[in-house]
Predict the structure.
Amino acid sequence: MTLPTPAPDRTAVVTGASSGIGAEIARELVRRGHGVTLVARRADKLADLAAELRGSGVRAEVLATDLADRDARAGLLDRVTELGLEPDILVNNAGLSTLGPIAQADPAAEMAMIEVDVVAVADLCSRFLPGMVARGRGGILNVASTAAFQPLPGQAGYGGCKAFVLSYTRSLGGELRGTGVAATALCPGPVDTGFGEAAGFAKEDAEAALPAFMWESAEAVAKVGVTALDKGKPVAIPGPANRAAAMFAHLTPKALLVPLLASRHPGLKD
């Protein structure tokens, strides 16, 4: 399995492309010759990235979209095709997290997270996949997390969302066998992108909870994800330490693991 051959009328749709992992995935796809359609709320940031990427000689489009808005999401595929483009690759990277115990959570914030991290992924896959299957080519890269392999007290909703993305993407891969379309779940460990700060982490707390050798750059994560999709791998975990940690979390009895995680999570500090 390889990624579809780039062409002027084909595009890779990348959500959450305004910064961090999403921006680096867009850059990695462009390095491989693919045109990109950049999706996020911030049109100004997307425009700056698109201008940069066009310097590589590919087509880079901007579609500012709030992925928490169901009507806006529903119109995204039509907006891509109205540009005269066939979406051969879909990267569901947009995501957010809440922080702290559920007993103290803001229900609206929890629902907003689930809307973007879970519902938007399923929505866009169900809209973009039929065309890929009909054409006999395509790729879906869904960005999950190593949090998908374990419960995550302190970020219970986020861990549950990413567990959904991992399971959903594995299931997609089984359904897509023989269609010419691949599905890969990218499961990064800690990455210094500003995501944690947006969720409410103090950077020093995150760094104290997770040792330095586990941290990966957004550029390295993007390369691992796109390479895995190109090879048709169902799951990609960047970095040997994170692969080992994910395996440990998956195999350890949860009666032992959950109290340990709860005792160390910055979101549960008094």
Notes: The chain has eleven helices and seven strands. The longest helix spans residues 107-135. The mean pLDDT is 93.
